[in-house]
């Protein structure tokens, strides 16, 4: 390992492992595997869920997660989860992973997102500068049973629809549409050639063209305006919003506790020491990039660093924004380095094969996404407190935007649910046995109906868990900061 002041780049042993021998079954054998799984784990069995008699206290699970996080930021996480049952659900991936530990499984594994709720789907730019929609959060990615992602997505639709005040019939339609699109898309992928599956993607312009006659003109215009705005969300826009000029040099703004520049955290270090340490970290990160991207990022120099609070479930983990400059101050690049802890799925589906959790995230993201950020890489760092932590790095903004779920009407959320269902199926089809999964799902709606029933039951539980969080704050068991 190479030590640079108080910050150390650690040799994390991420050398490639030997390729395992892959068994190539015929299409007929793979389909038979799915039918056999259907016999042993009926599709209707996925409807059944009830809290176990010894179900762990959901607040205790959140407190367990908090032990490895920045303690002064944990109340912000709780405050964001308090807003509604849906925001609670977004932050409660660990709770749901525990609840599904003994749920029915067909035995067919894929690369899981691990936290496939509807707000973890969004638009971003491909290297070819197309705007596509895909899964965009992989903090919990891990190989495991495909059903876990489907249930996480479907239940999120039910919870979000309740938050929007939709009637039961509309909620059922939204969930059924989501799962039906997953099932039919998987059957389509099962019939496709391998390369066609690998190249499949969902272009946002094509989505707009497809829904043009299905939504009213006012909402279509709002969608088109959101797409146009997304194309402005890049490093230059972040630079104008997040930096100020200090003695002729751009510096990231200080907005504590949400944005805190490095010099406010490392008060015992000189600026020169901090910059030298960060250069060492960036050199290690560069080695995880493809050679052409490595050359590109070497055209940028380090300018500034700040801690930034992000998301709901991620609040309290260490997330940094890194300002880099190219030919001049009109050529900025903002990177985000986000801490990667062990996946919440590990206790229930097995440990990762990667010793570095940043590499776990990157590998899962590259496998599941149709296109990934050109600066996606990883690093292990010994921080200012002397502890080693894993990080993954990507661009902070690159035409990224997410749908405003709270503003959707029932038909809009159903359309979006179908898009998410298709996208999740495509991600699973890239890594798992799509023929076996399609055979298991079948042509009918037995699985769809079962997941709709599960989603209603689990949404009820989410509402109870949200109330438990509110009660824990009220009684002083935990502290929450709201409005941040």
Give me a quick take on this structure.
With 484 residues, the chain is of the alpha+beta class. It has helices at residues 27-40, 58-66, 74-82, 85-91, 93-99, 146-163, 168-190, 194-199, 204-211, 217-230, 235-242, 262-265, 271-286, 291-297, 346-349, 357-368, 410-431, 434-441, 446-474, and strands spanning 2-4, 7-9, 109-112, 121-125, 131-135, 142-145, 243-246, 249-252, 259-261, 301-308, 319-325, 332-339, 377-382, 388-395.
Describe this structure in words.
With 484 residues, the chain is an alpha+beta fold. The chain folds into 2 domains: 2-12 and 233-395, no CATH class; 34-119 and 143-203 and 411-474, no CATH class. 46% of the residues lie in helices and 15% in strands. The protein has helices at residues 27-40, 58-66, 74-82, 85-91, 93-99, 146-163, 168-190, 194-199, 204-211, 217-230, 235-242, 262-265, 271-286, 291-297, 346-349, 357-368, 410-431, 434-441, 446-474; strands spanning 2-4, 7-9, 109-112, 121-125, 131-135, 142-145, 243-246, 249-252, 259-261, 301-308, 319-325, 332-339, 377-382, 388-395. The chain has an 8-stranded antiparallel sheet with strand order 1-2-13-14-12-11-10-9, sandwiched between helices. β11 (319-325) and β12 form a beta hairpin. α1 (27-40) crosses α18 (434-441) and α6 (146-163) runs antiparallel to α7 (168-190). The model is unreliable at 1-6 (pLDDT under 50).
- Report, as a whole number of angstroms, the end-to-end distance: 38 Å
Helix/strand/pairing category: alpha+beta
Give the fraction of residues assigned to helices. 40-55%
Number of strands: 14
Number of domains: 2
The mean pLDDT is 91
**Main sheet record:** 8 strands, antiparallel
Which radius of gyration do the C-alpha atoms yield? 23 Å
The percent range for strand residues is 5-15%
Strand line-up in the sheet with most strands: 1-2-13-14-12-11-10-9
Name the poorly predicted regions.
Answer: 1-6
Quaternary structure of the protein: single chain
Number of helices: 19
What's the shape?
A: globular
């Amino acid at each position: 390992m190479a030590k640079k002041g108080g910050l150390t780049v650690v040799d994390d042993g991420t050398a490639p492992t030997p390729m395992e021998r892959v068994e190539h079954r015929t299409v007929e054998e793979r389909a038979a595997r799915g039918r056999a799984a259907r016999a042993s784990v009926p599709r209707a069995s996925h409807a059944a869920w009830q809290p176990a008699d010894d179900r762990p206290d959901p607040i205790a699970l959140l407190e367990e997660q908090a032990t490895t996080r920045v303690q002064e930021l944990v109340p912000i996480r709780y405050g964001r989860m308090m807003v509604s049952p849906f925001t609670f659900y977004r932050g409660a991936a660990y709770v749901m992973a525990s609840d599904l530990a003994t749920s029915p499984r067909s035995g067919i594994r894929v690369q899981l997102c691990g936290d496939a709720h509807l707000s973890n789907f969004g638009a971003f730019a491909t290297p070819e500068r197309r705007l596509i929609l895909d899964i965009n959060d992989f903090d919990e990615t891990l190989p495991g049973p495909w059903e876990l992602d489907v249930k996480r997505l479907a239940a999120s639709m039910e919870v979000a629809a309740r938050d929007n005040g939709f009637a039961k019939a509309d909620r059922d339609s939204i969930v059924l549409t989501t799962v039906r699109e997953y099932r039919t898309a998987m059957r389509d992928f099962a019939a496709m050639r391998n390369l066609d599956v690998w190249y499949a993607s969902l272009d946002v312009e094509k989505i707009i063209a497809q829904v043009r006659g299905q939504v009213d003109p006012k909402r279509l215009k709002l969608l088109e305006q959101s797409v146009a705005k997304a194309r402005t969300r890049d490093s230059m826009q972040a630079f104008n919003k997040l930096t100020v000029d200090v003695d002729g040099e751009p510096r990231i703004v200080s907005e504590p506790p949400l944005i805190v520049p490095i010099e406010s955290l490392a008060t015992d270090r000189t600026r020169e020491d901090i910059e030298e340490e960060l250069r060492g970290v960036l050199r290690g990160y560069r080695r995880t990039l493809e050679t052409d991207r490595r050359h590109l990022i070497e055209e940028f120099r380090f300018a500034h660093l700040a801690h930034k609070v992000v998301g709901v479930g991620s609040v309290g983990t260490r997330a940094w924004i890194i300002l880099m400059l190219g030919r001049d101050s009109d050529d900025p690049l903002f990177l985000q380095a986000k801490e990667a802890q062990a996946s919440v799925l590990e206790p229930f589906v097995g440990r990762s094969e990667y010793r570095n959790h940043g590499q776990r995230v990157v590998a899962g993201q590259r496998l599941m996404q149709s296109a990934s950020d050109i600066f996606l890489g990883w690093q292990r760092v010994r921080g200012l407190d002397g502890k080693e932590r894993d990080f993954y790095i990507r661009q902070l903004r690159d035409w990224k935007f997410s749908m405003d779920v709270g503003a959707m009407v029932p038909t809009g959320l159903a359309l979006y649910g179908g898009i998410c269902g298709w996208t999740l199926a495509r991600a699973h089809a890239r890594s798992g046995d799509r023929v076996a999964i399609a055979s298991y799902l079948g042509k009918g709606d037995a699985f769809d109906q079962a997941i709709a029933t599960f989603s209603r039951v689990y949404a009820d539980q989410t509402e109870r868990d949200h109330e438990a969080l509110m009660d824990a704050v009220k009684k002083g068991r935990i502290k929450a900061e709201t409005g941040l």
